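Revision sheet: structure tokens.
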Amino acid sequence: MSNAVLAIESKEIEEMNHEQLAQWAEQKSRQIVERIETAVKRAEVAKRDAEDAKNIEIKWYQSSKKKVNATSDALVKANEAIADLHNLVKEAIQFSQTNTSLSNAVQQALSKMIEEGITDANGQVRTVSQGATQFVEKVQNEASRFATRQRQVEQLQAEHESKVAELQQRSDKADEALRQELAELETQHAANLDKLTSLIDNKVKEVHAQSAENDEVHDRLLAELKASNAELSEKSDANDSEHTRLLSELEVKLGALQAQVEAHKPSQLPIVVSLLAFGFGVASLVVALL
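Predicted:
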């Protein structure tokens, strides 16, 4: 069987709908069965020829070369026919395993032909020969096993893709949650920063206000102290002036008294002394009051 007969791209199969694929697979399966039958008949003929060559009777006066040549040619043809048959089956199996859809369609078509026979171009149904059936069944079984394996692989792939999608979904949700959390933290941080900045500004303003108030109080107290010192200094100057005046007056009075003492008689001395003592006492009292 030529590879061109069964050659097809998987993409071409995928473009067919179910009905088109079934019809096309049935057509190719019929070609496979017919070519297998032809190859089987050829192998069977070559095998019979080889057996006949072995059974050729050679007279005692004839050469055995004829028998040897006939046997050799028959065996070569038989081996070639068997090799062609196996290559045909191999190609048919490879063709049936192009993809899962084709494997299912070929397996179903071959199974139907084995059970119901082949309908030829004239509409006549004929049974697949017994010799060809075993090779057709081999192609059918391999197509069925391939389809089963592919379904398992596709199922595993689907489960894997589902798990990957689930993990991706979880990852996306986790990323979204993390982004939201980071956004909330940034918003909270900004709010706390604004609040802290406001508190610091208010505290600075309070400190500045308190400092200004303290400066004002300090300046007021300093002014009051200066005024009090000025007032005390003024009073002290006035007291000093008064003290000086009183002392001056006292000195004048004392001088007058002394003059009187010197002018009066001794009999009046006690009185003068008493007056002097009184005068000194008054002076001492004035000094104490100042």
